[in-house]
Design brief:
The chain is an alpha/beta fold. It folds into 4 domains: 55 residues, Phosphorylase Kinase, domain 1 (2-Layer Sandwich); 255 residues, 3-Layer(aba) Sandwich (Rossmann fold); 185 residues, Dimethylsulfoxide Reductase, domain 2, CATH 3.40.228.10; 113 residues, Barwin-like endoglucanases, CATH 2.40.40.20. It has 24 helices and 30 strands. The strands form 8 sheets. Strands 5-4-18-17-16-6-7 form a 7-stranded mixed beta sheet, sandwiched between helices. A 6-stranded mixed beta sheet has the order 24-26-25-30-23-27. The structure holds iron/sulfur cluster. The site of iron/sulfur cluster (SF4) has 12 residues, from helix 2 and helix 8.
Length: 727
């Protein structure tokens, strides 16, 4: 073990005054801004435009950006407070290493890089190239997503690369590709406003994607009807025309039931189906197999409400269907998505004004992050790593042979299982906090303890990074140039407003330096800035379904975002897909997919009789590593809670404010009760943004969709009781 510096004074001498945690002179930087930087919110996939106030190389506040067309100056609480993370005292200012019995100590970059590369090479020499994994996040820009994919495959040389979009967008992505051959919302959000009926499935719009609420309200002002499908009466559902309180895990049965009503009521657009789709006959057969009474029994939704919803949807002239994690976070996530898409296709309302379909991206770059090749089965441009033509194309762009590209690896959840089994022994992560975000966190903690070496790149020491051997102090959104792609498919420009503080470095610089030290500089040395990376990404994506070739930094700024696909210079971009009713599938048609309902991984029984579903609150973002550090957001929701229906609460003698012991087959948790009438009596809800003994993922189940490999966050079985210990 390296000799430790004797005292804080020595450390300060060695590393400068940053160790005193006042790198910016506290808040002396406040005052009038020296400049305003137009960029985008770093949190959810809406990609709201925002202006950051900068003074003395620090961010001191924000201004709305009224001209940016998506949000026109509107922001949610997270967007309003996001600037506060920049000056946060928890910000990592130096690389760190774990020292036995001491915790983390600062080290020089030379030691941090050298240790990482030496340890990974040692592990790979002993156990093979795939014994090291790379896990990344989709809050990263498009450039970093692309770079991480190339880094893992061409520098580390492992096939074991995946990303935390695996916990977010993959069911939607797989469903989109099956049905349409392309993974993107079919329309820009502008079409929501012109819809006569809006169906929102499994999406707490007002809290998770707040600016989308504005589009729905504008449609409502025109008289649009709103149908909400959710086990909870979420804030937007409180204003809707029809709420379908579906039992968690029963979504595909519900949508099949609605399709049945469309079929039996003569509301299917037979002409569209015949000319522009395939797979209808088998889909119709599957929908007609289950009687409506059975659908009502499985879903817990009244038969007459299913008929009413289907009739509203079926008779509409224009419509928009939106869904999110509520239907996607299941072992049937892809099935649920496909049954939604079947409803859209059956009515033929797609590809024209006011008619569309979209999946609401969760993470900051949840759309772009799933296109550029840091998924285990994907190459840039949303290409398939197992397709020989796709491999040959990317090999040419990268200047290697197709055989040099690793084959398909494993998704994030399986990578953690492989770490637990000892098959993967080294890990490099960037902006991913799996200890909080993966299901069954006790299992994840055990797995992390088995790694021989773990290097984490991040800007805060998140809970997973606590298990690292080396931590590389990386950069925030506002410290690097780049692009992100919003839920609509709009490619936006993010701007570097300030430099990383202390000795922290830009993520790009860290990855490029590691690539060189892995001896693979020849594949990376031509990158001098983010635009160089973007320009290679454009070429790498060309001809793929996510084609960015015609998009340039200059155009994005001038046009306030460009929608992909944009395959040529001068192409206007594509806010609305499928206007020519040509789809990106092998036969050019949209594909119906038959779905038959099947049970979830866990169903309630005598031992664990209550369904747990998890989700977000408006003031927190994902694993909370950023938002749990911002006081104004913490004040809005300082800790997790459990929502319980009065009937269920009364049976256990629980009232609001009581500590509730929640137990599953994986773990236990004590949280305070919120007794509410806005949830099904057989279901409880806990938000998942907290860590340690406050983590909802202590309870969730390690079960995955067979196609998308998304975990079943939205249904686990638990028992509840009034806790004798306080929370
Ligand atoms: Fe907009 Fe999402 Fe940021 Fe809120 S969190 S301001 S909705 S991008």
């Amino acid at each position: 073990m390296a000799k430790l510096p004797a005292s804080l004074e020595t450390l300060t001498e060695q590393f400068g005054p940053h160790l005193n945690r006042e790198p910016y002179g506290g808040w002396q930087g406040r005052g009038e801004p020296e400049k305003l930087v137009k960029t985008h919110c770093c949190f959810c996939g809406q990609g709201c435009g925002i202006q950051l106030k900068v003074r003395g190389n620090r961010i001191i506040g924000f201004e709305p950006w009224e001209e940016f067309p998506f949000n026109r100056g509107k922001l949610c609480p997270k967007g309003v407070k996001r600037y506060m993370q920049d000056n946060h005292p928890d910000r990592l200012l130096h690389p760190l290493k774990r020292a036995d019995g001491v915790g983390f100590v600062p080290i020089q970059w030379e030691e941090a890089y050298a240790t990482t590369v030496r340890e990974m090479r040692r592990i790979q020499a002993a156990h093979g190239p795939d014994s090291v994994a790379v896990l990344s996040g989709v809050s990263l820009s498009n450039e970093k997503s692309y770079l991480v994919g190339k880094f893992a495959r061409m520098a580390v040389g492992t096939k074991e690369l995946d990303y935390n979009g695996r916990l977010c967008m993959v069911s939607a992505g797989a469903g989109n590709k099956k049905a349409f051959g392309v993974d993107r919302a079919a329309n820009s959000w502008a079409d929501i406003v012109d819809a006569d009926v809006i169906l929102c499935a499994g999406t707490n719009v007002a809290e998770c994607s707040p600016i989308t609420t504005d589009y729905i309200w504008r449609a409502r002002d025109r008289g649009a009807k709103l149908i909400m499908v959710d086990p909870r009466v979420t804030p937007l559902a409180r204003t809707c025309d029809l709420h379908l309180p579906v039992r968690p895990g029963a979504d595909s049965a519900l949508f099949n039931g609605m399709l049945r009503v469309l079929i039996e009521g003569g509301m299917v657009n037979r002409e569209f189906v015949a000319e522009h789709t395939s797979g209808w006959d088998e889909t119709e057969k599957a929908a007609l197999e289950m009687p409506l009474a059975e659908v009502a029994r499985i879903t817990g939704v009244r038969e007459e409400d299913i008929v009413r919803a289907a009739t509203m949807w079926g008779q509409a002239k224009t419509s928009f269907l939106l869904h999110a994690r509520g239907i996607e976070h299941h072992t049937k996530g892809v099935d649920n998505v496909l049954t939604c898409i079947n409803l859209v296709l059956a009515t033929g309302r797609i590809g024209r004004k006011g008619c569309g379909y979209g999946t609401i991206t969760g993470q900051g770059n949840g759309q772009g992050g799933r296109e550029h090749g840091h998924k285990c089965d994907q190459l840039p441009g949303n290409r398939d790593i197992e397709n020989p033509e796709h491999r040959a194309y990317i090999a040419k762009v990268w200047g290697c042979e197709p055989e040099d590209l690793p084959v398909k690896g494993h998704p994030a959840g399986e990578i953690m299982e492989m770490i637990h089994r000892g098959e993967i022994k080294g890990l490099i992560s960037i902006c991913f906090n799996p200890l909080v975000s993966l299901p069954d966190s006790n299992f994840t903690r055990e797995a992390l303890g088995k790694l021989e070496h773990y290097t984490a790149i991040d800007f805060f020491l998140n809970e997973t990074a606590h298990h690292a051997d080396v931590v590389l102090a990386g950069s925030l959104h506002e410290e690097e140039e780049g692009t992100v792609t919003s839920a609509e498919g709009r490619v936006n420009r993010i701007r570097a407003a300030v430099d990383p503080p202390g000795d922290a470095k830009c993520d790009t610089e860290i990855i490029l330096e590691l690539a060189r030290r892995f001896g693979r500089g020849k594949y990376f040395d031509h990158f001098h800035d983010s635009e160089d990376i973007f320009n290679e990404l454009r070429v790498a994506s060309h001809g793929g379904t996510a084609d960015y070739y015609g998009i340039t930094y200059e155009r994005i700024e001038k046009e306030l975002g460009v929608f992909w696909p944009c395959p040529e210079i001068g192409h206007p971009g594509t806010p609305r897909l499928f206007e020519d009713l040509k789809f990106s599938t092998n036969d050019g048609k949209a594909h119906f997919n038959p779905v038959r309902y099947r049970p979830s991984a866990e169903e309630p029984d005598n031992e664990y009789p209550v369904i747990l579903t998890t989700g977000r609150v408006v003031s927190q973002y994902l694993s909370g590593s950023q938002t749990r550090r911002i006081g104004g957001l913490v004040d809005l929701c300082p800790e997790p809670f459990i929502e319980i229906h009065p009937t269920l609460a009364e049976g256990h003698g629980i009232v609001t404010g009581d500590p509730v012991l929640v137990e599953s087959r994986r773990g236990r948790l004590i949280v305070k009760a919120k007794v509410v009438t806005t949830i099904r009596p057989d279901t409880v809800f806990i938000p998942y943004h907290w860590a340690g003994d406050q983590s909802a993922n202590l309870l969730t189940v390690r079960a995955y969709d067979p196609v998308s490999k998304i975990p079943e966050f939205k249904k686990a079985c638990v028992r509840i009781s009034k806790a004798t210990e306080p929370r």
